[in-house]
Amino acid sequence: MNLARKDVWHNRGRFALTTLGVGTLLMIVMGMGGIYRGLTEDATLLVQRVGADIWIAQRDTRGPFAEVSRVPRTLVDRVAAVPGVVAAREFVYHTIQRQRAGKPMRAAVLGLSWPTDRGQWLPLVGGRGLAQAHFEMIADRSLGLTLGERIRLGKETYTVVGLTSGMSDPSGNGFMFFTVRDAQAVQFDQPGEAMRLERQARRARAQQSELGNVQPSILERAAGPGSQLPALPPNQISAVMARIAPGADATAVTNTINGWSDVTAYTRDQEEKMLLLGVVERSRRQIGLFRVLLTIVAGIIMALILYTLTMDKLHDIALLKLIGAPNRVIMGLILQQAIILGGLGYGIAYLLGQRVYPYFPRRVLLTNEDLLVLAGVVLGISVLASLLGIWKALRVQPNVALLG
Amino acid sequence: MTDTLAIETRLLTKVYGSGHTEVVAMREASLTVGRAQCVALIGPSGAGKSTFLTAVGLINPPTSGRIAIGGQLVMDGPRALTNPTAFRRRHIGYISQKTNLIRFLTARENVQVALELNGESPRAGRRRALELLDYLGVGERADGYPPELSGGEQQRVAVARALANRPSVILADEPTAALDSRLGRQVMELFAKVAHDQGAGVIVVTHDQRALDVFDVVYEMEDGIIRRSSHAAEAMPAVAAGGRSRSA
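Structure tokens for the assembled complex are given below, as produced in the milestone run.
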């Protein structure tokens, strides 16, 4: 006869509530683990999926994610000419915050090198990749945009033609994918008045210079669009991504590019490491620490619950001793209950989590490995938590049963 | 210590506390119960009857004195010479004054658990438990939990559990307190029958003097001392007793 099962069944209402409590607690522990894993995954997601072997950023900066990087667009051609590089693309990345339906919407804007990159590498869950050079965008589902939705950014209106899932930047902002031109149009959008003031200021500067006075056409040009002024540089991009030929040595290519005085190149592994150790390290450690503390708290609470459950049946335990139950039977009763509590709590945590985690603002990523480790931890906690109850139960004398 | 005796106690003393708070609950209590003998222990409240019974049941060790069960010395003063829990499981059936059933087990399971603890298979344990409950008239309540049973039903289940392993010693502390007189007498007769049929030694602590004629020997305890023994007929003259033996 399994006494633990009998006791659980007889007190099933109370046990169910207790298990629900433990399950909810474990769901939070599991969720913290998922957030920790999601943070790590999100941090390196783009680097892993974008298909770049080498990242080239502004000299002495730590790549386009860790800090602001500005490189000229022409760098793409220079990189493409390096032996071992088979393709080079522009990388434009910045974050924006806009109002949508009265609520703030933060998004990470990423430029795709049209027409070579139409977002074919993206994990689309709906719609399609980009089909034209302008006014189309692919958005991550987490932003709440729908297929066909039209959204105004700057002076232009963009149509959502594709949806991705789980594509967010290290800060958890969902991605919006545009062509590089459109991404920059969003980034460098200026109000008309600001543009007019800038042109006036430019014209005034030209008037004050000798060159402007001797060449009237310069004054005319200064009052026109900046793109028509050869003295003004075009909009810059964040970085350049390069793909190397099969069999080529990424380190050798990186060393070649690092020989240039205006840029710094990183291999994919280096970029990933920078993201993990730099951009998200503090958050990662904080969540990791919080997760450990939460696990300890869960253990303490489980120990208290099991101790209380044991105290409640102290009379029954004394009675079992009175009729000759050996200590191993008493220990088995409490230990099995602890494992049942932990096991059911874990199951509830998993099932409840499946429904609740999608509503978390950050991605909660549950991997099989993490779930297995947590199952082991819960088992360990259950055993440890039962020790207090077992200690109490073994100290009970059979004559307690006679006290009424 | 004689192996023809089911129970033999020599000069059992139990002292609680010390100094000003010292209480002597039992004083040099000696008693013998033969195999197939059913003995009553009567006396006023606080006389030490329950203390004596728990000492013999290896539940509450005496301060001094000796206890032998089935000819085997099991207690020498407060020191147990055997594993009390295992010994109780195999040889002693104990019925306490207050109804004592495990709350999370049904009536049948309360009996069955004692059998399974003693190595009986679940199937055989279940069968024997149901037989015993039927025998004690509570078979139809086998699936009821203790709070669903009346006091009398609970007590009968406790009796069934005590008898389950066919113990060589049965100790019952006021087993009929929750029963009406008719049922109380039936239970007393059952103890006597078990004693005679199984060859067990039975000690029943009771206040119920109407059923004393059932017992082979009646001991009386007062102020911690087992002062004298008498025939049931002597303790209860109105009851005609035949074939009872005097025990010193």
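Residues 152 and 178 of chain B are 5 Å apart (CA to CA). Residues 233-248 of chain B have pLDDT under 50 and may be disordered. Further analysis is deferred to the final report.
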